[in-house]
Amino acid sequence: MNVDLYERIWMWGVGVMLAVFFGSTAVAAIGSQIHPPSHVETIDPKTALTDPRFRRQGVSVDERGRVHATVVGLMFTWLPAELTLPADTPVTFHLTSPDVIHGYEIVRTNGQAMVVPGYISQFTTQFAPGEYLVACNEYCGVGHHMMAARLRVVPKGRWQAPAREAANVQ
Ligand code: CUA
Q: Within its chain, how far is the Cα of 14 from the centroid?
């Protein structure tokens, strides 16, 4: 087969580029353990609602004073559908799903995560006072468009931490 010189140069060029791309991805993933942003904590979706980490949904405060929000997404609602959070305070969200993939999107904030059965999604963010809409941004079935929740973010001084025994996050 007769391949033109310039054709050959381009083929080699493309080959080298692909090798560099795959090589650098492999080095980062394996060597430096860099993965796409995710919190790899697994859970059995069949028992997610009775799992100690998700048995009680809602807001809790751990012994170091950090605020956590535990949320379960299931067809077609968020549990709980309303959360009251303190403003200007980091809140760590823990999310899972017992059924299909949902998307927890706190509209007009940087708070967003895919909610995948079998995994616990986690992100930390904080809010200015106000009301925020949470939408499901992953098509999950006929009731997808109704799957919404609300965050009420109140000034820190007016926020009341839930009773200590309600906390379920270590
Ligand atoms: Cu849940 Cu769309």
A: 36
pTM (predicted TM-score): 0.75
For ligand 1, atom 1, name the residue with the nearest CA.
Answer: 102
pLDDT tens for residues 98-121? Answer: 999 999 999 998 888 999 999 999
β-strands 67-74, 91-96 pairing = parallel
Q: Are 59 and 152 in contact (CB under 8 A)?
A: no
131 CA → ligand 1 middle, Å? 21
Instruction: State the DSSP code for 93.
Output: E
24 is written with which tokens?
A: 């650098």
Instruction: Please state, in angstroms and rounded to a whole number, the distance separating the CA atoms of residues 170 and 18.
Output: 45
The identity of residue 75, as a single letter, is M
Q: Is the CB of 139 under 6 A from ligand 1?
A: yes
